[in-house]
């Protein structure tokens, strides 16, 4: 198939990889609007209910980096298929759960499978599409799944919970996962990794996995003593990587300006964007009084605009003006939208929808540009770990943004005690939008200073693995 229809075959392989990636991204948000129904059905305590979310984030964020490196060593297709199968199976057990403990355990395993599957996808895409214009277009498709996935998850979660029940927020993964597995086996050709005999830094893997898991847990749960332990473990990991013969995360990657800069910008950008979605979901329900389904529908314009921008516009403007200029311009549009939201009114159509459209356009062009910068100069032998790294920084940014903005909004609301509760909530959310804009302003500043105007090409410092992908002989 690859020899007769290389473009068609590569396109189908890209569709399969992005569909699987979208499913994993959806799962981080699809249960958000179903949480009240899950609590009522399984008898979760208010504190215990947060683990439906946290168990997934801890496993997913903690294992992305090692999953990416495992793909470099054992073969990215093999790791992708194993992770996708595990994620699909865990979704079945989550849907069948009749006990709170079973659901939390299933969510943790979902996070493991999601990390294995998604960590290697970007590395597979950049290897599959070596031509700059085709790569930019492919990254635009992938970026759509990352940027719009959370919004689509809110829509799907509201619709499934209201029309059926919360179990279907997990069952919906089964047909998607099975079809993606069957197609991936057929259209995504195997690659040959550098080999496990090259060595996997087990100690480094344990250190970084524990550090990221503890860090995500600490930030999500506001347990700051645990965060100190996470920082100590992360420092130990860096020391280990400097001394290890075969490091899990080669520190030479951070000497590549685009890699270091793009990952720092990603943390700040996602902190603002994902935190904004969390705050807006609460604003729509607690201030405007929308139910779960209408809250999901209210987000619908965001993925639609992101689709137009990332699939139809991002590749063209990036090729014309360069990824740095497109990134900074896109982030500027997002900042403008967030600043408009700091003066949000009680009207969805005049107060919320225009900023949402502006932010969707900005994110739709900025995220593909940033993904391209993060991978442009990476040697092929390190594509998996670089892909895992950019996914890890996304998760850290999401955890930081959600925790900070939730705390800011709650603190502002509490400080206005005598004021009408609805007005106090709105004031808290408006302040959170301002802080979210601050994250994005920091991202623009850092990107303007650190990222080069044009990414440079470097020679691989390690021998490239022989790779056979769909559409290449």
TrEMBL record:
UniProt main location, coarse: membrane
Membrane topology: Multi-pass membrane protein
Pfam assignment, any one: MFS_1
Descriptive protein name: MFS transporter
Keyword terms, alphabetized: Cell membrane, Membrane, Transmembrane, Transmembrane helix, Transport
GO cellular component terms, semicolon-separated: plasma membrane
NCBIfam families on file: efflux_EmrB
Domain of life: Bacteria
Any one GO MF annotation of this record: transmembrane transporter activity
Subcellular location: Cell membrane
Domain Major facilitator superfamily (MFS) profile intervals: 13-455
Protein source organism: Amycolatopsis balhimycina DSM 5908
């Amino acid at each position: 198939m690859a020899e007769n229809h290389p473009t068609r075959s590569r396109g189908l392989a890209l569709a399969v990889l992005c569909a699987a990636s979208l499913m994993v991204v959806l799962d981080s948000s699809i249960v958000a609007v179903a949480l009240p129904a899950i609590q009522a059905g399984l008898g979760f305590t208010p504190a215990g209910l947060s683990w439906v979310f946290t168990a997934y984030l801890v496993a997913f964020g903690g294992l992305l980096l090692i999953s990416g490196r495992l793909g470099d060593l054992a073969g990215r297709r093999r790791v992708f298929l194993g992770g996708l199968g595990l994620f699909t199976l865990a979704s079945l057990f989550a849907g069948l759960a009749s006990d709170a403990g079973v659901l939390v355990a299933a969510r943790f395993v979902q996070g493991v499978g999601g990390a294995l599957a998604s960590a290697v996808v970007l590395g597979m895409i950049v290897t599959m599409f070596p031509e700059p214009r085709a790569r930019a277009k492919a990254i635009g498709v992938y970026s759509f799944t990352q940027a719009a996935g959370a919004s689509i998850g809110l829509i799907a979660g509201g619709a499934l919970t209201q029309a059926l029940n919360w179990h279907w927020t997990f069952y919906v993964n089964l047909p998607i996962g099975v079809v993606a597995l069957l197609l991936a086996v057929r259209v995504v050709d195997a690659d040959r990794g550098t080999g496990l005999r090259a060595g996997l830094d087990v100690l480094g893997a344990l250190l970084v996995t524990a550090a990221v898991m503890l860090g995500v847990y600490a930030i999500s749960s506001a347990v700051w003593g645990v965060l100190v332990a996470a920082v100590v473990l992360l420092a130990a990991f860096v020391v280990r990587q400097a001394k290890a013969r075969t490091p899990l995360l080669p520190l030479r990657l951070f000497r590549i300006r685009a890699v270091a800069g793009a990952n720092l910008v990603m943390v700040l950008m996602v902190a603002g964007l994902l935190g904004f979605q969390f705050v807006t979901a609460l604003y729509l329900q607690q201030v405007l009084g929308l139910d779960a389904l209408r809250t999901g529908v209210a987000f619908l314009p965001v993925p639609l605009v992101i689709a137009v921008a990332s699939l139809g516009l991002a590749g063209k403007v990036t090729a014309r003006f360069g990824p740095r200029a497109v990134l900074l311009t896109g982030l500027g549009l997002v900042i403008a939208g967030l600043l408009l939201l700091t003066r949000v009114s009680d009207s969805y159509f005049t107060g919320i929808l225009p900023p949402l459209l502006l932010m969707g356009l900005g994110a739709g062009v900025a995220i593909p540009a940033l993904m391209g910068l993060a991978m442009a100069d990476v040697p092929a032998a390190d594509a998996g770990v670089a892909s895992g790294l950019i996914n890890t920084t996304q998760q850290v940014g999401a955890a930081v943004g959600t925790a900070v903005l939730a705390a800011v909004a709650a603190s502002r609301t509490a400080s206005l005690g005598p004021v009408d509760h609805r007005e106090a909530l709105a004031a808290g959310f408006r302040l959170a939008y301002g802080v979210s804009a601050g994250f994005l302003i920091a991202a623009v500043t850092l990107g303007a200073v650190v990222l080069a105007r044009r990414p440079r090409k470097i020679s691989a410092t390690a021998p490239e693995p022989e790779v056979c992908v769909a559409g290449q002989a």
